[in-house]
Design goal:
By secondary structure, the chain is α+β, with helices and mostly antiparallel strands. The chain folds into 5 domains: 359 residues, Kinesin (3-Layer(aba) Sandwich), CATH 3.40.850.10; 71 residues, no CATH class; 63 residues; 79 residues, no CATH class; 73 residues, AF1531-like domain (DNA polymerase, domain 1, Orthogonal Bundle), CATH 1.10.150. Strand 9 and strand 10 form a beta hairpin. The chain binds adenosine-5'-triphosphate. Adenosine-5'-triphosphate binds next to helix 3 and strand 13. This is Kinesin motor domain-containing protein. InterPro entries: Kinesin-like_fam (IPR027640), Kinesin_motor_dom (IPR001752), Kinesin_motor_dom_sf (IPR036961), P-loop_NTPase (IPR027417), RuvA_2-like (IPR010994). Pfam families: Kinesin (PF00225). GO terms for molecular function: ATP binding; microtubule binding; microtubule motor activity.
Length: 730
């Protein structure tokens, strides 16, 4: 079954104008969709509206062209909370009680009504999906309990947490108790679980509401320009339903997720803190979009682990039913964001979810195993438990008490009676005693009459009978073996603990390593996201800059390199200029044109100073060499800047075209002053000393003339140079 995707268009705010509406719900049938007002009877109108499955929106580049997206259902601005719940959520409740998990999540740009849909308002008719779902769960629970006349019992437990800046926080914990690192995630049997999360039982709707309200007060929300109560985190509510009937227990889970909305930060006018939140929100949503893309392209690697939200949501991995509510605003100011949401939803609806029922669990004593009898009809001997001495409770009996319990023996070692002795489950398995092994063997042998020699032995010990001596020996041996076993088990335990510590330590190291690479990759992804956004808006030079910033994180990504090259081509077209310069270089008649062209090129340099700033920024780092060559041949502007019109090398960018920032940075470096160098961003005292040492090795007169040379100094890499440079303000 695929993810069910429904779209909900929020009504206009007072500040929004009908004139600006560009998103229009529609019906797939030829008959135009009618609104409630058109119909004499509200119910019939609602039924008609249920047929709306289309969203129409103009192409942002060509208003005359319309895009149409089809979903499972579309709810317009006049649909109520009740309409949405009755049609989409209420039908899932019975599945929850039939053993299926249900996941409902709201997705959309900031201010499109996700929180309104999921949580809603305080009044009865404004209540959102979550309180209505809980109300339905409790109603059904009571019905099950009543119908079974108390034989079934339903327990509801709730956990509620948020993912804020890619960290997980328990919403039942007050803010002051939060640890900065948040709660860790672990994989548990294919499911991602949050370690240390509180789970609260909620006996009834009232309990739930008070807990839910308390927890919501801990949720991170802030005012942004686009939403006075904007959610700054993804909120995940998990409702566990435990249905017990006799010895059978079934656990199912309803998850309701209010995702934070993606934000275009040119519109939010966010400050620094909001920007950090926003970057984290956008990044996780970007990863989500990547996961959906990878799933729809049936790629083997789905990047779930690149953000906590995608790891938890595990779209396409979780079993059961999944409903996505796509929240939309209908006005023009959301145009591009709406298109990107629609594209995302369009891909999501193709994701197939395995509809797997949760298995019930049985508690109480294990059910007896029925064994097939042998063909001859003889009952087979039950197999002995293969318990090892480590896990067995060893009974080191007190001789005096055991004496009393032990029945008097009629025979010596080979006694039939011994085999009749009853065992408790915790008795030391008789097989572990060599003596007992003999006796075990004996049970299959015919009983023996004591030998003459045995009788004489008994006589030799005066009044101690031989069977008593044998018993004493046997007990002694058992005691020794028991002590040895205990010793072995404690040694084994110590060994296990040591091993556990070792394994734990390695796991932690591994985790940290993975998180480290994940962090770096995440940074790269956020550059990519920004690049895509700029590209989409036609801001090519910023897009180019972002792609370049992303490149060090994906050094061998050909697609990325191609994008950069294409943008460079776009920004620095090189038609006749190349020809002119080349021809000029050859001294042809056309060389007359050269001064004019060169002058124009110099002007272009001033205009495009920003681009050049990036050029010199990028001209270090091995991964750029291929690209750089391409750029060098493709960019005559650079060519004319070389004194001899040749490309002597990547470092040959003369100082006169260095940006003030670069020249300042190089002058600090060339000052060879540890005090000054260590003040550069990302450089500590040690690194500053190392740089100065390097410079001294180069000789008195030699200077660092470019960023690429700086990047090649021992201990200074691409990242350090970027860091140093970004910290220079001139
Ligand atoms: N269907 C609706 N009916 C009435 N009001 C709505 C509806 N949807 C949204 N609103 C109103 O729009 C405003 C923004 O909605 P909401 O806070 O739910 O957006 P959001 O998508 O959760 O935003 P963010 O991602 O920033 O948290 C709220 O004042 C809300 O009451």
């Amino acid at each position: 079954m695929s993810v069910r995707v429904v779209a909900r268009v929020r009504p206009l705010w007072k500040s929004e104008r009908e004139l600006d509406i560009i998103v229009r719900p529609g019906s797939a049938s030829t008959e135009p969709a009618r609104t409630k007002k058109d119909s004499p009877d509200g119910k019939a109108a609602a039924a008609l509206k249920d047929r709306d499955t289309l969203i129409r929106i103009p192409n942002p580049k060509n208003e005359g062209e319309q895009y149409t997206f089809q979903f499972n259902a579309v709810y317009g601005g006049d649909s109520t909370q009740q309409d949405l719940f009755d049609a989409e959520v209420a039908p899932t409740v019975k599945h929850l009680f039939n053993g299926f998990d249900v996941t409902i999540f709201a997705y959309g740009v900031t201010g499109t009504g996700k929180t309104h849909t999921m949580r809603g308002g305080k009044s009865l008719q404004d209540r959102g999906v979550i309180p209505r779902l809980l109300s339905a769960i409790y109603r059904r629970s009571r019905k099950i309990e009543k119908d079974s006349q108390g034989a079934s019992n339903v327990e509801v437990l709730m956990s509620y947490y948020e993912i804020y800046n890619d960290k997980v926080y328990d919403l039942f914990e007050p803010l002051e108790k939060r640890t900065p690192a948040g709660l860790p995630l672990r994989d548990n049997g294919g499911k991602t679980v949050v370690v240390g999360l509180t789970e609260r039982p909620c006996a009834n709707l009232k309990d739930f509401e008070s807990l839910y309200d308390q927890a919501n007060a801990n949720r991170s929300t802030s005012a942004t320009k686009l939403n006075a109560h904007s959610s700054r985190s993804h909120a995940i509510l998990c409702v566990k339903i435990v249905t017990t009937t006799g010895e059978k227990t079934r656990v199912t889970m309803a998850s309701a997720i209010d995702l934070a909305g993606s934000e275009d930060n040119r519109r939010t006018e966010n400050g620094k803190e909001r920007m950090v939140e926003s970057a984290s929100i956008n990044k996780s949503l970007f990863v989500l979009a990547q996961c959906v893309e990878a799933i729809s392209k049936k790629q083997s690697r789905i990047p779930y682990r690149e953000s906590k939200m995608t790891r938890i949501l595990s779209l396409g991995q979780n079993n059961g039913l999944t409903l996505m509510i796509l929240n939309l605003a209908s006005v023009r100011s959301y145009h591009l964001d709406t298109i990107s949401s629609l594209n995302f939803a369009n891909r999501t609806k193709k994701i197939e979810i395995r509809e797997i029922e949760n298995e019930p669990m049985f508690k109480g004593p294990a059910r007896p195993l029925t064994r097939a009898s042998t063909t001859g009809g003889a009952l087979r001997q039950p197999l002995r438990p293969l318990t090892s001495s480590v896990n067995v409770k060893v009974n080191v009996e007190n001789p005096s008490t055991s004496d009393e319990k032990k029945p008097a023996k009629a025979f010596f070692v080979y006694s039939d009676k011994q085999s009749l002795k009853s065992h408790t489950p915790f008795d030391r398995p008789r097989r572990s005693s060599p003596l007992k092994r003999n006796s075990d063997v004996s049970t299959r042998l015919p009983s023996k009459i004591p030998r003459e020699s045995d009788r004489s032995a008994s006589k030799a010990h005066g009044d101690i009978p031989a069977d008593r001596i044998e018993e004493m020996v046997e007990r002694k041996v058992e005691q020794i073996l028991a002590a040895r076993a205990m010793d072995d088990s404690s040694k084994q335990q110590a060994q296990m603990e040591h091993m556990n510590e070792e394994v734990q330590r390695r796991l932690e190291l591994l985790e940290r390593k993975i998180e480290g690479t994940e962090d770096a990759r995440a940074e790269g992804l956020s550059y990519l996201l920004m690049a895509k956004q700029h590209h989409g808006r036609g801001e090519y030079s910023s897009a180019l800059r972002m792609y370049r910033l992303a490149l060090p994180f994906f050094p061998r990504n050909e697609k990325l390199a191609a994008k950069i090259a294409a943008l460079e081509e776009k920004l620095n077209p090189q038609p006749q200029v190349t020809a002119e310069v080349q021809v000029a270089g050859r001294g042809s008649i056309l060389s007359i044109k050269k001064p004019v062209k060169m002058a124009r090129t110099h002007a272009a340099i001033d205009e495009n100073y920003k681009i050049f700033e990036h050029e010199d920024e990028d001209d270090y780092g091995d991964s750029y060499i291929g690209l750089k060559r391409k750029r060098a041949t493709a960019t005559p502007k650079m060519a004319v800047l070389k004194d001899d019109n040749t490309f002597a090398g990547e470092n040959a960018i003369p100082d006169r075209i260095q940006s003030p920032r670069t020249s300042h940075l190089l002058s600090v470096i060339n000052s060879r002053d540890v005090g000054q160098i260590k003040l550069l961003k990302g450089v500590g005292a040690k690194k500053a000393e190392a740089i100065v040492d390097c410079l001294c090795e180069m000789g008195e007169v030699d200077q660092v003339r470019s960023l690429s040379e700086l990047g090649r100094l021992k201990g200074v890499g691409l990242k350090t140079v970027q860091n140093m440079r970004s910290g220079v303000f001139v």
